[in-house]
Write a structure and sequence with these properties.
The chain has 391 residues and is an all-alpha fold. Helices cover 68% and strands 0% of the residues. Keywords: Transcription, Transcription regulation, Transcription termination, Transit peptide.
Length: 391
């Protein structure tokens, strides 16, 4: 409307051009004030400096610098001098954080460049160090989850550690391991996102030691919607897992990680290799993580065991742990060696678990050192040949 009114006046229509006030109004609209020009110029200069700093000091590409600069501008953050960002980068360098890691931190949380290093950043770093984090640990965790530094030390970070120690009875060392595996956990709302799922497990009789064990090794397991988590628990119970067993929480971890389509795809692979659906369920109950093995690994191991060694697929289903072992370093050398022993009548039968899953020391004691010295020496040389070890 304003634009149309000005246009009419400038074209000299008598009804409006006669008004002096209207002419003055249009002139004001046509020429921005000095204040407006100064603001635009200042903002442009600040933005230009920010872009230049991100490219030259942080190693950003022009595209990454533009994105980070836009993020800063959206938060009303622009800087004209390098003083504050320089101090932040120096702070990170003094922690042993590499240039690449610093760039990663700033890309994910560019506003950290204007944080006060002494009042805001240092207290959080000192607290984490007091909990056992080394400089290399801090570098890794902060580059993966720099949002942690934007959290309140008193209102979020310390309470999170209190939950680890008070609600989970986790010593600092175990909490430290969980955080390293899933750094995002320190920026979660643990009371709302973590504890409800853990309490659900407690209510159905899952042992505290099993909860702590899974949390320490696989903390991501508990990070999901409460309703979906309860649905997985129901599935696991219907499969016949008992809450008192460690495999119960292991099965939850697997089903939480695999989509339904991925699960069905793995089942079809096993069925094509000779397993029945009952075999799949049996194997899953014995070792839920057998569903994590890649299709290529499953096919290769089954091919060797079934086609090279003549073992029935259903027998493999009773020892699914072998599907996770190294084919080249464990299964093939021991399998070929066992075939030689059987051909010489030195061993009649063995379980797959005993043959493949025992430690090297136990294996040698069971299949080599149990023979008289001369024979044992010959067998050891043969086994080393199978391993491809230098003699």
């Amino acid at each position: 409307m304003i634009y149309l009114l000005c246009k009419t006046a400038l074209h000299g229509r008598p009804s409006m051009a006669a008004s002096p006030f209207f002419r003055r109004f249009c002139i004001l609209r046509s020429y921005p004030s000095k204040l407006s020009l100064r603001f635009v110029s200042t903002t442009s200069n600040q933005n230009s400096f920010t872009l230049s700093y991100l490219i030259n000091a942080c190693g950003f590409s022009p595209e990454s610098a533009s994105l980070a600069s836009a993020t800063l501008a959206s938060k009303g953050i622009l800087f004209e001098t390098p003083d504050k960002p320089d101090s932040v980068i120096a702070f990170f360098k003094n922690l042993g954080i590499s240039k690449t890691q610093i760039a990663s931190i700033i890309k994910k949380r560019p506003e950290l460049l204007v944080f006060d290093t002494e009042k805001t950043l240092l207290p959080k770093v000192e607290f984490l160090r007091s909990r056992g984090f080394s400089s290399s640990d801090l570098a890794t965790i902060l580059s993966l989850n720099p949002h942690l530094l934007a959290r309140s030390l008193e209102n979020h970070i310390i309470p999170s550690f209190n939950i680890f120690s008070n609600n989970l009875s986790l010593p600092d060392e175990s909490a430290f391991k969980a955080i390293k595996r899933f750094p995002r956990i320190l920026t979660m709302q643990l009371e709302d996102e973590l504890l409800p799922n853990i309490n659900t497990l407690r209510e159905i009789g899952v042992r505290e030691s099993h909860i702590v064990n899974i949390f320490r090794l696989h903390p991501r397991t508990f990070w999901m919607d409460q309703g979906a988590f309860k649905e997985i628990i129901d599935q696991v119970q219907k499969m016949g897992f008992h809450p008192s067993t460690l495999n119960f929480v292991s099965a939850i971890r697997v089903l939480r990680s695999l989509s339904r389509s991925k699960w069905e795809w793995k089942v079809e692979i096993y069925k094509k290799l000779g397993w029945t659906e009952e075999d799949v369920l049996k194997a899953f109950k014995l070792d839920p993580t057998c569903m994590f093995s890649s299709a290529e690994k499953i096919i290769a191991v089954m091919d060797f065991l079934v086609n090279k060694m003549g073992i029935q697929p259903s027998v493999v289903a009773k020892a699914p742990v072998v599907l996770k072992l190294s084919l080249e370093k464990r299964i093939i050398p021991r399998g070929l060696f066992a075939q030689h022993l059987m051909s010489k009548g030195l061993v009649k039968n063995f379980s797959l678990q005993t043959l493949f899953y025992t430690t090297e020391e136990s294996f040698l004691q069971k299949f080599v050192n149990c023979h008289e010295e001369k024979k044992a020496s010959e067998l050891l040389k043969l086994y080393e040949q199978k391993l491809g070890l230098p003699r």
